[in-house]
Design a protein that fits this description.
Number of strands: 0
Protein name: Tetratricopeptide repeat-containing protein
Order of helices and strands: HHHHHHHHHHHHHHHHH
Organism: Lutibacter maritimus
Largest sheet: none
Shape: globular
Structural class: mainly alpha
Number of helices: 17
InterPro entries: TPR-like_helical_dom_sf
Strand content: under 5%
Radius of gyration: 22 Å
CATH class of the largest domain: Mainly Alpha
Number of domains: 2
Length: about 325
């Protein structure tokens, strides 16, 4: 199996790029659906955009009420069916979510975004087998979605299939940061940690000596020890710089995103922390404690910018993972 090397990327450029990518994907995802909104009926439009507004502030039940009014005016609207399904998914009403996404798919069976949403419904129920079947079909048309199939294989404990797909992704030149992260995870499952030293010398316990050794070796295990010591001593300016520098060499390590975001929160750079955490959480696999830590930092960051709704949501997510 191919062991992917760690890619060196400029962290700040990576943040900007991913931000642009997310915005672009959102635009493309929304445009084909929103284009189906009934533009000839002002009342319909008012209810529909009220539904979008309520969903944006997590009032999913109120959003559904507005969508029901839309449905009375136009029972064949693809956009309404899609929004129904999304809101029911947020409410964890999976049966209803499936009904409405299937209704939408009857209208446009090859719509990429509808299919991705149905996959999300299956994943929310941990029905990975069904999600894998749909994702396989999507990958045939959209090879760039192969990373998501790798993750589904891992979540379903189909590790051999995941390894085979990673090799195929690499041969096709489609390797990404996610691929590297998933590959590292699979190696760790086998007890292989090519980037970690099993033992760090007991004498290397000071920040100065650890930084000196890291600059000489670029070893991840030493960096890990260095950041933990900086965090323990609350050296947040230094922690911010060292974790950011580490991400340039190890962009698939979730611990680096977490420590960098922790430092940013302590420095009251909350928006930057949200950006880092949103990217880094994609690299967390089968680690409830790490995931909970991400959510806790997201809660702190959202509280810092005055968004109490999001702060509460992520605080609750963290608590659920710790029970």
């Amino acid at each position: 199996m191919y062991i992917a090397p760690h890619m060196k990327v400029n962290f700040s450029h990576k943040i900007v790029y991913i931000g642009i990518l997310i915005i672009s994907l959102f635009s493309y995802a929304q445009q084909p659906i929103i284009a189906n909104v009934n533009t000839n009926n002002l009342e319909f439009q008012q209810h529909f955009f009220e539904a979008l507004k309520q969903k944006s502030i997590n009032n999913f039940s109120k959003a559904i009420v507005s969508l029901e009014k839309c449905n009375q005016l136009d029972s064949e609207s693809l956009a309404v069916d899609f929004e129904f399904s999304k809101n029911y998914l947020f409410l964890k009403k999976y049966f209803e979510a499936e009904i409405f996404i299937d209704k939408a798919l009857q209208k446009e069976p090859n719509n990429k975004y509808l299919i991705l949403h149905k996959i999300a419904i299956f994943k929310a129920q941990q029905n990975f087998e069904s999600a894998i079947k749909l994702q396989r079909n999507l990958v045939k048309i959209y090879p760039d979605l192969s990373d998501d199939l790798v993750l589904l294989y891992i979540q379903n404990q189909n590790f051999e299939e995941a390894e085979k797909l990673i090799d195929e992704i690499d041969k096709n030149g489609l390797k990404s940061l996610k691929t590297i992260g998933y590959n590292d995870y699979l190696l760790s499952k086998k007890g292989l940690k090519p980037n970690d030293k099993e033992i760090i010398s007991a004498k290397n316990t000071t920040i100065e000596s650890l930084r000196k050794d890291y600059l000489k070796t670029k070893d991840y295990a030493i960096l890990n020890q260095l950041l933990k010591l900086e965090l323990e001593q609350q050296l947040f300016d230094i922690l911010n710089e060292d974790s950011k520098s580490g991400l340039e060499l190890y962009p698939a390590q979730p611990f680096l995103y977490l420590t960098n975001a922790t430092a940013l929160n302590k420095l009251e750079k909350y928006n930057d922390a949200i950006t880092v955490l949103t990217i880094g959480i994609d690299f967390v696999i089968d680690d409830r404690i790490m995931e909970a830590n991400f959510y806790e930092q997201l809660s702190i960051a959202y509280f810092g910018i005055g968004n109490k709704t999001e702060a509460t949501k992520f605080k609750q997510k963290a608590a659920q993972l710790r029970t």
